[in-house]
Amino acid sequence: MTSIEVEALTKKYGPETVVDDLSFTVAPGQVTGFLGPNGAGKSTTMKMIIGLAAPTRGTVAIGGRRYDDLTVPLTEVGVLLDAGAVHGSRKARDHLLALAVSNGLPRHRVDDVLARTGLEGVAGKRVGGFSLGMRQRLGIAATLLGDPEVLIFDEPVNGLDPDGIRWIRGFMRSLAGEGRAVLVSSHLMSEMAQTADHLVVIGQGRLIADTSMSEFMRANGEGTVLVRTPEPDSFATRLAAAGATVRDGLESSLVVSGMTSEEIGKLATYHGVTLSELTPQQASLEDAFMELTKDSVEYQGAAA
Amino acid sequence: MNTPTATTEPAASTEPAQARTVPFTRTLHAEWVKFRSLRSTWYTLACLFAVGLGITALSLSSAGSQYETTIAEQQPWDPTNLSLTAYIVAQLIIGVLGILVVTSEYATGLIQTSVAATPRRHRLLAAKVMVATAVAAAAGQALMFGSFFVGQAMLASQDVPNASIGDPGVFSSVAGGGLYLSAIALLSVALGTLLRATAGALATLVGIVFLVPALAGLFPSWLQWLVDIWPSLGGAAILETVPNPDYPHPWLNFGGMCLAVLAVLTAAFVVFRRRDV
Q1: pLDDT of A247-274, one tens digit each?
Q2: Yes or no: domain A223-282 corresponds to CATH 3.30.70.100
């Protein structure tokens, strides 16, 4: 069982600190979502994990060793940073073959991973003609060549169609199910909600949250209830008295949190208040994420 | 099964697989797979021979009158060197090949994948250097010998004095042309690594092999040593069979050029190891 241990990782480009004293662990057997707004330092962190960028301070250990010290890296870590990073006039099979050969992996591994990613049919085609979805599969195929215990994907669903997104999600889950440590970055909370077991949230290079998905849901996923009544003011007072938090919504509606719709309905019946609408609102993890990272977004659009 | 090359591996798999190291030959083989699997490689090589032999044929098509002018001006007649003038353009095409071995990976972003797969970066660059130089050496020698034989045949057909490969100094000049082109390939890989972009590296190479030689007359005397080892100038003197008063020891000049190329290559290795990818 191999894990990634990031310890006090810092990267400075000149005066700018892109990654700031970041520490977290990517455990085996689960998908760790690496979340942050654009420019939060996710890609830089991933590059430091695999030795493409040198940290200013701090260390990364993969199974206790530095990436540069791995003797057959593809058998330990599979990385997909950018699916577009292939030479367009090279055939898919040759692209994978060069990688396999460079780590002394047997040739049949190329066919194995082509089959696992459903690319057998286009193995002899030049990559330049591939759709984004196919390139993404090719990139994933490359990560699996050495059957590694650790997998790292940078924004793997970016730009994919719903079918491709679903395939990648399922794939991540199955990789984690096989006991591998999977680190997936994204800037979309909704994406992580459906894939990740664990969340590492960063903003402006700093750690904002390091928590399990279920805990994050419990803490941030509390829903609200939209209530409409002819007498909003008096009912709002009664709701508040019953322990709920009430905000004014649009068109004299009430947004209630801290009580379920069932409890609100009972309260209305007890006081003989007529309700014209009682709608539970789905808690938005996206909102929770925005709330969490609002202070660390690089460029904020001014409210209209 | 016990193969002679296998490292000592305990029968029980208590030792993890990563205890084995990947031999350098694998890195080399991988670079060869990358190199041969691009169409541009073969187009560039085809272009090298088409342009190289084409220039040889063109430049010697009127060798008869050329010979008369040379003799009238009491200049030495060097049929070997005349048949090798294609090296001037060939070095640019070979250079493109060497540059692309590195810069095509930067252009596509593939370099990240390559470095992740081979984190010992000096190995990766060494493999690239070796593949590019080996191909340049083979293609360069083939082109130089091809040009020599085509050229001498053309001279013979015009009844102009020509050289045979067994004449004194001829073989070393022709083979020297191939070596010169190999050295240019080394330089190109180094430039590609240092500059990371095809356009920048190619412009630098053109500056080195064409522009600076064109301006060589402007060099002050204390920079004469640079002229002596510069490509297309002193570095290319080995392609001449008639002694050149400017470069009395052409192989020393070529040796100097090789040392300079090695210095640039060393800088490329240092930078490639240190720089973030």
Answers
A1: 888 888 898 888 888 889 999 999 999 9
A2: yes
User: Quick check: B113 contacting A, CB < 8 Å?
Assistant: yes
Two structure tokens written together for A293:
């990272």
Give SS3 for B63.
helix
b/e map of A16-49 (b: 16 or more CB within 10 Å)? ebbbbebebebbbebbbbbbbbebbbbbbbbbbb
Give me the pLDDT at residue B14, please. 39
Contacts of A52 in chain B (CB under 8 A): 112, 115-116, 276-277
Cβ-nearest to A67 among B38, B108, B119: B119
Contact: B38, A90; criterion CB under 8 Å: yes
- A100-114, A252-266, B186-200, B207-221: least confident range: A252-266
Cα of B221 to nearest chain A Cα, Å: 42
Distance CA A126, CA A109 (A): 19
**DSSP helix/strand/coil, B132:** helix
CATH 3.30.70.100 residue ranges for chain A = 223-282
Tell me if A85 and B37 make a contact (CB, 8 A cut-off): no
For A4-211, CATH gives 3.40.50.300
Comparing C-alpha atoms, which of B197, B109, B118 is closest to residue A88? Answer: B109
- Evaluate whether A224 touches A231 at the Cβ level (below 8 Å): no
Question: Across the interface, which of B26, B38, B105 has its CB nearest the CB of A101?
Answer: B26
How far apart CA B216 and CA B230 sit, in angstroms, is 10
**Residue A114, Cβ neighbours under 10 Å: how many?**
21
Query: Model ipTM?
Result: 0.87
User: How many angstroms separate the Cα of A46 from the Cα of each of A53, A80, A150, B55?
Assistant: 9, 10, 13, 51
Name the nearest CA neighbour of B179 among B233, B257, B248, B126.
Answer: B257
Give mean pLDDT, residues A74-89: 94
What's the CA gap between B134 and B132, in Å, rounded?
Answer: 6
C-alpha–C-alpha distance, residues A117 and A134, integer Å: 9
Confidence check: pLDDT of A201 > 70: yes
The identity of residue A286, as a single letter, is E
Residue A176: what pLDDT? 96
Chain B interface, mutation test: which of A101, A103, A125, A145, most B Cβ atoms within 10 Å?
Answer: A101
Q: In what order do the strands lie in the sheet with A150-154?
A: A77-80, A150-154, A181-186, A31-35, A198-203, A206-212
In chain B, residues with a C-beta closer than 8 Å to the C-beta of A79 are 113, 116
Residues of chain A with CATH 3.40.50.300: 4-211
Identify whether the C-beta of residue A223 lies closer than 8 Å to the C-beta of residue A283: yes
pTM (predicted TM-score): 0.85
Q: Which conformational region is residue A247 in: left (phi greater than 0), alpha (psi within -120 to 50 degrees), or beta?
A: beta
